[in-house]
Amino acid sequence: MSRPSSRTFLERLADGVVVGAEGYVFELERRGYIKAGPYVPEVILDDPDALRQLHREFLRAGADVMVALTYYAHREKLKDVGREGQLEELNRAAVRIANEIAAEGGALVAGNICNTWSFDPADPITSGEVVRAQYREQLGWAVEEGIDFVIAETNDFVGEALIGLEVCTELDLPAMVTFASVQPEKTYDGYDYVDAVKRLADAGAAVVGLNCSRGPETMLPVLEKIRAAVDVPIAAQPVPYRTSAAVPAFESLESPAGRAFPIALEPFAHTRFEMADFARRAADLGVSYVGICCGGAPHYVRAMAEALGRETPASKYSPALDLHPVLGDAGTEAQAGAHEVMGTWSAGA
Ligand SMILES: [Zn+2]
User: Fold this and answer.
1) Distance from the CA of 1 to the center of ligand 1, in angstroms?
2) Which of 6, 279, 280, 337 is most deeply packed, by most CB within 10 A?
3) What is the pTM of this model?
């Protein structure tokens, strides 16, 4: 088994905040390379250069981790699009491409497993074996291609998350296990989110936390409770959308035109300044892995990395509105205005 990076995931976490970047599926859908609905990452085989380019953009924006795009690249989802015969080829290619681009900037490579939709809490033994077999085959290939650690994410069930962690442990891989938090208080199998991540930490997860579903405003209060409850490093990868106490998860956002999720979310999008503010607040709270999930894009990641004190390769082209031919000094005022909005939002959170 190879470890692509010269410094391990745990060493980097010990040194300071690790910047993550996800949202590959949503972004590649917007760019015309993945179909909304099934959301299977066919781009890996159909247009690998499109995937390489997005990895590179996240890397330039300051991401410390290239996440192999194996989200939904498991047996059950591939059957939906009639490509289960290419399962191995697709998984291996995704990890290979992540490694190729990570090497351009010394990034870590994460293998990725997620909610499978195969787990049934009413029959956890039989359904759990189906899940375990899918994780074993995905991560077996990932290990052969070379990964530093595993991100097991968007978990809806403690039972399924524990199976993912067990498979990582079998393979001697550090695991970052994060839950989606679609429901207001509990996982689909009835665990309070704080209790859920605590169980994973107690079972040996290297990092625990939350990803997807919630925007900054509704994820931060849960993170605060998690920080107080567990001793291991914690991770936060929110969606860049305006969720609220009334609508804590983006799946339920509605605009006057109707349901916004998953492809009409633009009216709820946060600005880069607001996501930068999230990064600072998460770091202040003691979050060790600060990233972004569905809706994530390079401009957010750069703003977040810069908010954490980084200068990234893409910082060369960070805004300088004072040099705008029309706005000039007014450009500086526009920036100040944006910061004011951000301040208002912070105060309300
Ligand atoms: Zn997501």
Assistant:
1) 29
2) 279
3) 0.92
